[in-house]
Structures are given as C-alpha cells and as structure tokens.
Write a structure and sequence with these properties.
Blueprint (H helix, E strand, L loop, with lengths): L2 H24 L7 E2 L10 E6 L2 E6 L1 H10 L1 H9 L4 H20 L4 H24 L4 H17 L10 H6 L2 H7 L6 H14 L2 H4 L3 H13 L2 H11 L5 H20 L3 H7 L3 H8 L7 H14 L3 H9 L2 H10 L9 H17 L3 H9 L2 H11 L4 H12 L3 H9 L3 H8 L13 H21 L4 H8 L3 H35 L5 H10 L2 H16 L3 H13 L4 H13 L7 H17 L21
Helix pairs in contact: 1-4, 5-6, 6-9, 9-13, 12-13, 13-16, 15-16, 16-19, 18-19, 19-22, 21-22, 22-25, 23-25, 24-25, 25-29, 27-28, 27-29, 27-30, 29-31, 29-32, 31-32
Length: 609
C-alpha cells in the first residue's frame, strides 16, 4: 500500500470517528440513545421510535431498571469505563452497515412468511403462558412484551401491498384480528394501529385488486364487529386508547372506500350507529368527536337504508342537539368548524328521506335552524342549507316554516342582506352558495304551498318595498342566464373548431356547471309570482325584461325544459304530479291575449293591485 492510500485510509477513519463522536454528542439530551434511521431488530432494554434526539433506539426505563437490578456491578463498571476510540469506530461501522442493509431490504414472499411465522410463534407462546399462569401475570409478562414487539414489526407489511393475497392465503389476517379481543388493551391498541396502516388509502390506492382481497377477507372475519366492540372498551381518557378509537374509525372508513356496500353493512351488522350518535353528544370537542361526525356524514351520503336507520334510532333529535350547541357560539378551531359542517351535512342527507322530513318538523328542527340563522353565527349557512333540503317536497314543513315566521329570515338571505350584518364575513364562494340556497328554498316554498293564506303571505313579499324582491329576482335571472348562455356559446364554438357534432349530454353538463338548475329555480319563482295575476308584479317583471331586451318567452322555455327533465327518483306518480303542476305554470306565462290559457282553478290573488 503506497503512502497516498495510507493517508486516504487515515482520513476516512478520522471522518468516521468524527461522525461517531458527533452522533454521541448530539444524543446527550437522552442518555443511552442509539441513533438508527431504520428498525434493525429488537434490542433488550430499548424501544425504537422518533424522540427528542431523532430516530433510533431509546432506553426503556422499566427494562433498564430490571437490567440494572440484575447486573448492578457490571453497569457501574460500564459507566465508569473510559471511551475507547477503536471500539467506538468499530461500533459506528457496524451500525452504518446494518442501516444500509435495512434500507435496501425489500419485503418479499419469503420475508413475509418469516415475519408471519415469527409472529405466530410469539402469539402461541403468549397464549400458552396466559393459560399456564393465569393467576400470576408476572409469569406471562415477558411473552406479552415479545408479542407486542412482533406486532409492531407487522407494520412492514404495509410497504408491500402486492403481498396482501399471500397474507390472506396464509390466514395471517385472522391471527391479527384475534388480537383485537386480547385481554391486554395495549396489544389491542397496537393491533388497531397495524390494521389502520394496512388499509390506508395511501397504501392501497395503487393496488386495488390486492386491496379488495384483503378487505373482503377482513369483512368475512367479522372485523367490523370486533372494531365496534372495542370502541366502547377503550378508555379515551388514556391517550393511547383514544388514538386507538380514532384508528378504528379510520379502518372502517378505509374499508368503505374499497367496498361501498360496507357502509350499509357497518350499520346492519354492528352497533356503530348508536356509538356514533352517543359520541357527538358531549359538548367538549376532540379529535374523536370530529371523526365521529365525519364518519356519520359519510355513512348517510346517498344511502337511503342508512338514512332510514338513523331516523328510526331517534338520530334526528341527537343531530339537532349537537347542532344546537352552536346556535350561540362559534367553533374555536378550523377542525371544529369542519366538524360542525359534517354534522349539518349528515342532517341534510338524513332529511332527504320523506319519513325523516316529518320527524325533523316534529322535532322543531325548523325553529332551531331559523334561530341559528337569526344569531348570525358560523353555522347559519349550514342551517340555511339544511332548511333547503328539509323543505324540498315537504308541504307540512313549508306550512310550519311560514307559521313560525321564517319568511323574514328566508328573504334576508334571498336579498343578500345577512352577510352585511354579521361579524364573520362570507367568502365569495359562500356568498354564491347562500344565494343559490335561498333561491332553492323560496322555490320549495312556492311548490309546497299550493293555495291558502300562507301562499298569499309568501306572494305578498314580492310586493313589499316597491317590488324590491322582484328587482332582486330579475337581477339573478339576468346573471344566471348570462352564465348559462356563455357556457352554451363556448361549447358550440369548441365543437365547431374541432369539427365535431354537438353532444346533448355534454352540452347539458356544461350548462349545468354554469348554474342551469339555479336559473330554472329563478324562473320557477318568476312563474309563481306571475300566477298571482297581480298587475303591479306583472308590470315590474315585464319592465325589467324589456330593459335587457328579453321576452317572457325566454323564461317560459327554461321552465318547460325543467318540466321535461324532471326525473323519477321519487317514482313515476310523483313525477307526473310535479310535471302537471309546472306545466300549468308554463301555460300561464303569457301576456293577455297572447295565447289561449287553460286554467283548472281560479287565479290566486295577492292583496291590492
């Protein structure tokens, strides 16, 4: 070896020694800390984690005390022994090599089998020790610690989702699930954490087929039932167990993302709904209440059987009680704001079911929503949205709304006056939603109040203050018509430039995205206003149309299109009923003498002319 090579070796050795010394100095905050970027195997008396000194092995106080009692003299000698540079250099090189090997190691089928065999052995040893020393926990404590270490190693499975079918073939998932019922809650906590990581959407999004195999196996092995049983078992006052509750809800949500039908199974096969409803009751906010509200909203979304179950479980009262907490106060954090939004979203989905609409009215849900709107707190937009859903095709709700003086709040939102008097200003997106919800709500009131004094009170609102609400109505008609016309023009130009024929479905989608439904609701309100045969209201509508070079036929055509596109989601009979009523409004949207009108009933009057 020449002089240059010797000098290079000395320099390399010095760098390694310097790095080792620096690592030792950087860990002085935690005595005994051994740095390691990856888990390289269990070390007696240590636990692998990320702490104050970084990632690595930290002393386990309990185990260290045991070792200290067993070998007090040896420990003192080690503590008093001077540092040896050569030994320190050798240890640093060994750790560096171990870390490098761990970083390049990829879990394969053979590695999976070794991991599962080791886990099964520790599980069996623990079961035998518990049976043998049932009255002496100290005797099986060591096997419990070994089992816990093996459970933590199972996190490595999440790095290889392609091996999930092999995991199921080995029936390892069943062994893992058995630990959810382990008598030691710490074992159950760590098991839930493993399941949460295995089913994480980030892990499974690129392996859909393998994910479905695992989720199907978990479902067949009663995972839902085991998870829900543990929700009541865990003590949320203990941070680790509170985290396990959060992870349990996460596993259920992850499974639903893979199999949509699990949403219904979760409420049919378990007592999850009861637990969720009880969990949103406490006034105090925490992460688990946040997740319970979110999961409840997900379970209700577009799922009529689940909506019906919640209504039957007196869940509407519970949701209203949870919402009532925010009638006079604001959420303190962004997470709490999101939880409030989830509560109201769940309520919106629930009141889509016809039976639940009646229960919502009977539970004085309308009065609560109006109170929240009047208090002008954070939840007022959510309350308006809930009323919009609740009063859609609900005559009893519309009548109750008028009786409890809800028209004032509805038209304050319709006129866009609410956000001007509240401390919390709405974002542009929220203002747009408020406008659309108010339009839909007023349209629902007109459809729900077919005749009588309540309908007259609704119509008279458009006469007040020199027809200001008609002015606002026509302002929105011009706005949304311009948006829809622009979208139509752009789509047709795009087709022409590309030499393509226009597709009716694509055109309808483009117009819908531009606000077609809201425009149709504006026209529906306009047609109802016109139907009162009030000369002043009709004159105001015609004047504003003329000012924008528009004819009454433009509104009539939009209303006819809405009539023709009514779906059968509520049944063919309901569809025919609604079409007949709207067709009558279309037939009435003509000037005197412009076209023959066929009226089945006498025209309704609004006081005065």
């Amino acid at each position: 070896m020449d002089q240059a090579q010797k000098r290079q070796k000395r320099e390399d050795g010095a760098e390694i020694l310097e790095a080792a010394m620096a690592r030792m100095e950087s860990t002085t905050m935690v005595a005994g800390f051994i740095p390691s970027n990856t888990f390289t195997g269990a070390r007696p008396g240590y636990v692998f984690k990320k702490g104050l000194s970084g990632v690595g092995f930290y002393p386990d106080k309990i185990e260290q005390d045991k070792i200290a009692k067993q070998q007090p003299t040896q420990q003192k000698k080690k503590a008093a022994a001077p540092l040896d540079a050569n030994k320190l250099l050798e240890e640093a090189e060994r750790e560096h090599a171990a870390e490098a090997d761990a970083q390049v190691e990829v879990l394969d089928v053979r590695g999976l089998k070794r991991l599962i065999l080791s886990f099964e052995k520790k599980l069996r040893d623990n079961m035998e020790a518990r049976m043998k020393y049932a009255e002496n926990p100290d005797k099986f404590l060591e096997s419990e610690i070994d089992l816990d270490d093996e459970i933590k190693k199972l996190h490595a499975l999440a790095t290889a989702p392609k091996l999930y079918p092999e995991l199921v073939r080995l029936n390892a998932h069943a062994s893992i699930l058995n630990l959810l019922s382990h008598e030691n809650p710490d074992i159950a906590v760590d098991t839930v954490e493993v399941l949460h990581e295995l089913t994480s959407s980030d892990v499974m999004e690129d392996c859909e087929e393998e994910a479905q195999i695992l989720v199907d196996a978990l479902l067949e092995s009663n995972t839902l039932e085991l998870l829900v049983q543990n929700l009541s078992r865990f003590d949320e006052k203990i941070p680790e167990e509170a985290s396990a509750v959060f992870n349990s809800l996460g596993v259920i949500e992850n499974m639903m993302e893979v199999r949509k039908e699990i949403a219904e199974a979760a409420l049919t096969r378990t007592k999850l709904l009861r637990w969720l409803l009880s969990r949103i009751k406490p006034r105090e906010f925490d992460s688990n209440k946040f997740y319970a509200a979110e999961l409840l909203s997900i379970l209700m979304q577009g799922n009529e059987p689940n909506q019906k179950k919640l209504g039957a479980a007196n869940g509407i009262d519970t949701l209203l009680q949870a919402a009532a907490m925010y009638k006079g106060r604001e959420p303190h954090t962004s997470d709490e704001e999101e939880m409030v939004a989830n509560l109201f979203d769940a309520m919106c989905w629930v009141v889509m079911h016809s039976e639940n609409k009646e229960k919502f009215v009977q539970a004085e849900g309308i009065e609560l929503m109006l109170l929240i709107m009047k208090n002008k707190r954070f939840a007022r937009l959510s309350a308006l949205k809930t009323l919009d859903f609740a009063l859609t095709r609900c005559p009893a709700g519309c009548e109750r709304f008028v009786d409890v003086l809800g028209l004032k709040s509805a038209f304050a939102a319709f006129m866009g006056k609410v956000h001007k008097t509240t401390k919390r200003k709405l974002t542009p997106e929220e203002k747009e939603e408020e406008e659309q919800r108010a339009i839909s709500l007023v349209a629902s009131l007109f459809l729900g109040l077919s005749r009588g004094s309540r309908r007259d009170r609704l119509g008279s609102k458009f006469v007040e203050a020199e027809f200001e609400k008609i002015d606002r109505l026509m302002e929105m008609f011009i706005k949304f018509k311009a948006q829809v016309d622009k979208a139509t023009k752009e789509y047709m130009q795009e087709c022409q430039e590309e030499g393509l024929d226009a597709d009716d479905e694509e055109l309808f989608t483009a117009r819908s995205d531009a606000g077609l439904f809201t425009l149709q609701m504006v026209v529906l309100i306009m047609a109802n206003v016109w139907s009162f045969s009030h000369a002043g209201m009709k004159a105001r509508v015609l004047l504003l149309l003329t000012q924008h070079d528009l004819q009454l036929s433009a509104a009539r055509e939009l209303l006819q299109e809405h009539c023709d596109t009514i779906g059968e989601s509520d049944g063919a009979e309901e569809r025919q009923k609604r079409q007949k009523r709207i067709q009558k409004l279309v037939s009435g949207m003509y000037l005197d003498g412009e076209a023959p009108q066929v009226a089945e009933d006498e025209p309704e009057q609004v006081g005065g002319e």
